[in-house]
Specification:
about 250 residues, alpha/beta, Rossmann fold, nine-stranded mixed beta sheet, two-stranded antiparallel sheet, 11 strands, about 30% helix, globular
């Protein structure tokens, strides 16, 4: 069984985000980037399947500039067999990413297309669902547990009401939630081996995909500054303050 897994380059989650002075976006130059954390979970899951003998090949794919190869190398260090880099310097919106992934999936013919449920830079949570729709494959989003058996996958999903378990036919698109697993720590020998593994370069034109922007960001602003809190001397005073604000 072949598993395709998507990897996105995003600003590292430990970085304090700064807004550009003109409000056109966030500052990215000189800022540490890393693999989107939900994608790390997706890669880890794919590798566990391979180590268990369930998957025979794991292929990582990313869309982005030359710098995105760094995240592909991380995926290869996890143990992915191959990597595909769709090179573009243009911003990639969810629908464009989905169209790229549709073309790659048709070319690679995986049984499972693993993705993170969302990227921490835009929090769109749309690419997996759009890819599924374009491919006309079943989807299982927000997965916290996955059991593969023959031509089906039993997936436990995290939903607002709790947990939901569904079964989907393969091939399918599955998106990883936070509690699916804990990604491994990459060791130096694995990082060095990853440098020798192949990365296939492609372009949007090669796949017949146009980077059409469907959404326009008008302005980016930081959240409002929080007001200072009020110190109270007793529980009675606290309750009185809460009543003043209509909170109790």
């Amino acid at each position: 069984m072949k598993v395709l897994v998507s990897v996105k380059r995003a600003i590292d989650y430990n970085v304090r985000i700064q807004i550009k002075p003109d409000g056109s976006g966030v500052v990215e130059n000189g800022v540490k980037h890393s693999m989107n954390p939900f994608d790390e979970i997706a890669v880890e899951q794919a590798m566990r399947w391979k180590e268990a003998g369930t998957a025979e090949e794991v292929v990582a794919v990313t869309i982005g500039p030359d710098a995105a190869k760094e995240q592909l190398r991380s995926a290869l260090a996890f143990g992915c067999d191959r990597a595909i880099h769709i090179k573009t310097d243009e911003p990639v919106q969810p629908l464009t990413a989905a169209r790229v992934f549709e073309a790659i999936a048709q070319k690679e013919e995986p049984k499972v297309f693993m993705m993170g449920k969302q990227a921490i830079d835009d929090d769109s949570n749309q690419t997996g669902q759009m890819t599924s729709a374009l491919l006309e494959w079943p989807q299982a989003t927000f997965a916290s547990e996955i059991e593969l058996s023959g031509e089906t996958a039993k997936v436990t999903r995290e939903i607002d009401a709790g947990l939901e378990t569904i079964e989907v036919d393969l091939p399918a698109v599955i998106t990883a939630d936070l509690r699916l697993n804990e990604p491994r720590y990459l060791k130096l020998p694995d990082i060095m081996k990853a440098k020798k593994k192949p990365i296939e370069d492609m372009s949007l034109d090669d796949l017949g995909v146009e980077a059409a922007a469907r959404l326009e960001t008008l302005k980016t602003t930081p959240p409002p500054t929080r007001e200072a809190g009020v110190r109270v001397e007793s529980v009675d005073e606290l309750v009185a303050k809460l009543k003043e604000k209509g909170l109790v």
